[in-house]
Automatic annotation (TrEMBL):
This is Uncharacterized protein. The chain crosses the membrane at residues 77-99, 129-153, 165-183, 189-210. Keywords: Membrane, Transmembrane, Transmembrane helix. It comes from the Eukaryota. It comes from Heterosigma akashiwo.
Length: 252
């Protein structure tokens, strides 16, 4: 770090190594987090190490995608879910407005074991709750699209405020995933909640990185502080590769 200063801008440059970037001459890099220090300490227990890692941002979305790419994918899925909700609401509206035709077709192709009372109960349910369901689908679609646009704005334009809102909504999404999975059995519930929680942590990690980056550019964040992403080792100015073979994962 030149001049001994812990404050600097943070441009990312390509290292020539597939899927990797390093920070050129600055202290901030989104690579291994501070848990590496505790894991190298022989006095750190496994439980302490595990708890420390849970509290830290992740370095990338997964083995294939960076944090930024992961957030873009998750936000795109939100957009897709919203559009599908709108299509579902349209289909449900068609069912309500053309119920007599649908009922006649179902009666002509019904199973011999089905009773006429089943169709009457279905008709009563549709006429009672159908309009509310259709409106609910439209509202869910609008919410999903707005959430997706916020996530994309935070990732594409590297906007920390949008990233913060996206991760807050992702945390709320964990509760919705838990409620939605109550009827899926213990395994389905656990899988859905764990996946939603990890997606929320990816969104949170991207926000943490952007917040640190913006703070560094304004000279307000001490990047040498251990609660932030650790600084990379010194770089060779000719090759832009970290001395000692360390290469920080890419965030872009």
């Amino acid at each position: 770090m030149q001049g001994g200063s812990a404050y600097s801008r943070v441009p990312l440059e390509d290292t020539g190594v597939a899927g990797a970037r390093v920070v050129a001459g600055v202290p901030l890099a989104e690579g291994p987090t501070t848990s590496h220090a505790s894991r190298s300490d022989p006095t750190t227990t496994a439980s302490q190490d595990w708890r420390a890692r849970l509290k830290e941002p992740v370095g990338n979305c997964c083995c294939c995608f960076s944090l930024r790419q992961g957030v873009i994918i998750l936000a795109s899925l939100n957009l897709l879910g919203g559009v599908l909700s709108w299509f579902a609401s349209v289909g449900f509206g068609i069912l309500l407005t053309h119920w007599e035709f649908v009922k006649q077709w179902l009666q002509e192709h019904k199973d011999p074991s089905e009773d006429e009372q089943d169709f009457e109960d279905m008709e009563h349910t549709l006429k009672t709750f159908g309009p509310f369901v259709a409106v609910f689908m439209v509202l869910v679609g609008i919410a999903q699209v707005i959430i997706g646009l916020i996530g994309l704005h935070g990732a594409v334009y590297r906007n920390a405020k949008s990233a913060r809102w996206y991760y807050l909504v992702s945390v709320v999404g964990v509760a919705f995933a838990a409620a939605r999975s109550l009827g899926d059995g213990p395994l389905g519930f656990l899988v859905n909640v764990c996946l939603s929680a990890y997606y929320a942590k990816v969104a949170w990690s991207w926000y943490i990185f952007l917040a640190q980056q913006e703070g560094a550019e304004r000279g307000r964040v001490n990047l040498a502080s251990p609660q932030y992403f650790p600084p990379p080792p010194p770089h060779d100015r000719d090759t832009n590769l970290a001395v000692g073979g360390y290469v920080a994962p890419s965030v872009v």
